[in-house]
Write a structure and sequence with these properties.
- It is a single chain.
- It contains three helices and 15 strands.
- The strands form four sheets. It has a six-stranded mixed β-sheet, covered by helices on one side.
């Protein structure tokens, strides 16, 4: 079985991107407690309307909208949510993210998709030893501070069979960093998902 991290493609500069977003009135469960605290402190100083703020360039709305003010890394169009649902591929939670401000002049007259933050259920564990990550006395990973990418490796024996699942950051909690199988890659090709790429991730 092959596994992939879902990313925004970022290669077609015609696609709009998000420079950040403002606080929602509903719970933002896609943020960890620490990330939420950091965002709230930021919004106290930088007041914003609820929802997505686009960047200044771009002329097309993508299915996968890169978020420069992550987390989350991206916003996903309703078309993708429906594509997954119609194929029987479950997601854990979808939090609607409205458009608060459009800065790009070339996109203002084009209707925007409905975007949301998509989270997927846990579906696999990380093999920290194979990834070169030390474990503390409580069995928790000690993530090094480095500018070099960590060669993450998944533990294939723990895969639950899900075709879409979250990054194994916190056990039993959905996550917005999405990992998928070949089935989702084929679905993306079939339905013409835009501004998305699939980066292979090793499993041992």
């Amino acid at each position: 079985m092959n596994f992939y991290i879902i990313r925004t493609a970022e290669s077609d500069r015609r696609f709009i991107y998000a420079s950040g977003y403002g606080p929602l009135s509903e719970p933002m469960n896609f943020l960890s407690p620490q990330d939420l605290e950091n965002k709230v402190e930021f919004w106290k100083v930088n007041q914003r309307e609820p929802g997505i703020i686009t960047g200044e360039r771009g002329s097309k709305w993508p299915d996968f909208l890169r978020n420069g003010g992550s987390p989350p890394l991206m916003f996903v169009s309703q078309r993708i949510v429906e594509s997954l649902h119609n194929s029987g591929i479950p997601i854990a939670r979808s939090t609607p993210m409205p458009i608060a401000k459009i800065k790009a002049k070339n996109i203002k007259d084009k209707p925007a998709p409905e975007y949301s933050v998509v989270e997927a259920l846990p579906g696999i564990e990380m093999d920290y030893e194979a990834s070169g990550i030390s474990i503390d006395s409580e069995g928790k990973p000690i993530i090094p501070r480095t500018i070099q990418p960590i060669p993450w490796k998944l533990k294939s024996s723990t895969w639950t069979g899900l075709d879409l699942f979250g990054w194994p950051r916190i056990p039993k909690r959905p996550d917005e960093v999405l990992i998928c199988t070949d089935r989702v890659v084929e679905l993306a090709k079939r339905d013409g998902w835009t501004n998305v790429k699939f980066e292979s991730i090793a499993a041992v």
